[in-house]
Amino acid sequence: MQLNPLLITALAISIGIALWGLVDPQGLGALSAAVVAAQFDSRGWFIMLEASGLLILAIYLVLSRFGSVRLGPDGSEPEFSTPAWIAMLFAAGMGVGLLFYGAAEPLTHFSVLRAYSGDPAAASRALFVTYLNWGFHAWAIYGVVGLVIAYFAFRRGRTLLLSAPLTDVYGDHGWTRALAWVFDLLSIVAIAVGLAGSLAMGVFQIQTGLAGLIGMAEPDKLTMPVFVAMCLAFFVPLRRDLGDGMAKLSNLAMTLAVVLLVFLLVSGPTSFVMNSIVSGFGRYVFQVLPAGFSTVEFFDTTVVDWFQGWTLNYMIWWLAWSPFVGIFIARISRGRTIREFLIGVIVAPTLFSIFWFGVFGGIGFFDVLRGNGDLLEVNAQSLDATTFALLQKFPVSAVTQGLTIFAAFLFVVTSVVSAGFTLAMIGTGGDENPSPNIRTIWGGVLGALGLAMIFVGDVGLVRSIIALSAIAFVFIVPVLVVCLLRSLHKEGRT
Question: What is the per-residue DSSP string for 212-233?
């Protein structure tokens, strides 16, 4: 195992954040919330402009002559089958978040928006906002960052690092090397902190569901057993080949999620849910681009706080995860064309997300508008419990809750495995198959950071910590885009 200044510095910073969170979790959370709120107040417009710009760029590249450019030598073939490829990128990008927020997020938006319109209009708007937060914009951020990395790694023969485009386009000079080193360091910190937050939220949801399943009144007593079990589970695949461990776990997690989704759709108010999905999808497709430029500047403080706490937070959250997901999906996408890559990365997961939130959110709104509305009360008390409260309204709820817990567990494990692999790649200078020992070390660091996030104890503060780690990428990603466009146009001329 070879250590280098980048790896040592990144480990030191990550371990330092973990220790801070373990010693003073509330202090870390409060500082992050204050800094992020100040950034949102001053640069919220730029974050939305950037996210929308990346989506428009992706559309342009798909439709342009550059769409036929292959991510690798001409004639190269993909390493993984398309279904396995989509399952891996989806599990790495959002898996556990869908289980956590499936019904909770639409109901939360509804609670805010109903004060400004009638309940049916608020439900419609809440579903649209959920689609906006999880749809094309999110995956365009992932897709464009992943495309930049894959293009320079496989087409230009560089490494799988965020720094590769900079040195390739502007040359290997002192200033480019220094800036590239900073890019890689910041990407490591953002990946580690962002993944740790996801791990913590996974633990929160699993302990809540497990406590309800076994009749335990105090879910907090399950925090450490769940966390330890999760750590033991992800250390095994971290030491195995990527295709052998990650692909199998991703496929299993996605299968469980699809089974749960179909069961709820068939067993629930199918007509109501499908009507909401069809109408919601239509509104989203035709309004997504204008909505991406919204900054709610003319509304009161309640709406502004809600917008910053959700939509802005999500956009910067996807930026925080973009180095991790981007590098990972670049690693598994060699041989695909730019058009195939962007359509696969952006469209397929977005359609699944729309269907997922349409089913869970539609069932939640059916309960609010035509049922007893108790899901809204549960959601106000605990976002962790909303999904399980929804499942309890259906037959064989013990089975579906157990499947949900297991799927959430697998999604967190696959995310940690993906992140450990990616962090090891960056720390070793872009090695596509880093040493199992380095991957294991990063697994331990991610576990420590995750425990620090658990000690913070508040989902809102955890989201602020993740957002803080991504502030720099608001400015780094445009630089990467400029490098990609310059290189593509140069290749087009030659």
Answer: HHHT-S-GGGGHHHHHHHHHHH
pLDDT at 292 over 50: yes
Q: In this predicted model, what pLDDT tens digit does every residue of 332-370 receive, in sequence order? A: 888 899 999 999 889 988 998 899 999 999 999 998 888
Find how far residue 324's CA is from the centre of its chain. 9
DSSP3 helix / strand / coil % (the chain, rounded to 5): 85, 0, 15
Contact in structure between 229 and 236 (CB atoms under 8 Å): no
pLDDT in tens, 396-435: 888 888 888 888 888 888 778 878 888 888 877 777 677 7
Residue ranges with strand state E in 138-252 = none
Q: How far apart are CA 89 and CA 95, in angstroms?
A: 9
Flag whether the pTM goes above 0.85: yes
Count other Cβ atoms within 10 Å, centred on residue 335. Answer: 18
Write down the domain spans for the chain: 5-493
| pLDDT at 243 exceeding the cut of 60 | no
Strands (E) in 95-206, as ranges, are none
pLDDT tens digit string along 184-206? Answer: 888 888 888 877 877 887 888 78
Spell out the residues 6+ positions from residue 365 whose beta carbon is closer than 8 angstroms to its own. 106, 107, 110, 123, 126, 127, 276
Which stretches within 24-94 are classed as H helix? 25-63, 82-93
Q: Answer whether 137's CB lies under 8 Å from 51's CB.
A: yes
* CA dist., res. 253 & res. 247, Å (int): 10
Q: Closest by alpha carbon to 284, among 355, 341, 344?
A: 355
Distance in angstroms (rounded) separating the CA atoms of residues 398 and 404: 10
Q: How far apart are CA 211 and CA 220, in angstroms?
A: 9
- The string of DSSP codes covering 260-279 is HHHHHHHHS-HHHHHHHHHH
> How many angstroms separate the CA atoms of 338 and 348, rounded?
15
Report whether 411 contacts 252 (CB < 8 A).
Answer: no
3-state SS assignment for residue 184 = helix
Instruction: Give the closest residue to 51 by CA, choosing from 298, 295, 277.
Output: 295
Q: Which two tokens stand for residue 487?
A: 């290189």
| CATH number 1.20.1740 given to 5-493 | yes
- Using CA atoms, how far apart are residues 305 and 312, in angstroms rounded to an integer? 10
Are the beta carbons of 26 and 456 closer than 8 angstroms? yes
**Residue 367 and residue 123: Cα distance in Å, rounded?**
11
Cα gap 236→409, rounded to integer Å: 14
Residue type, 195: L
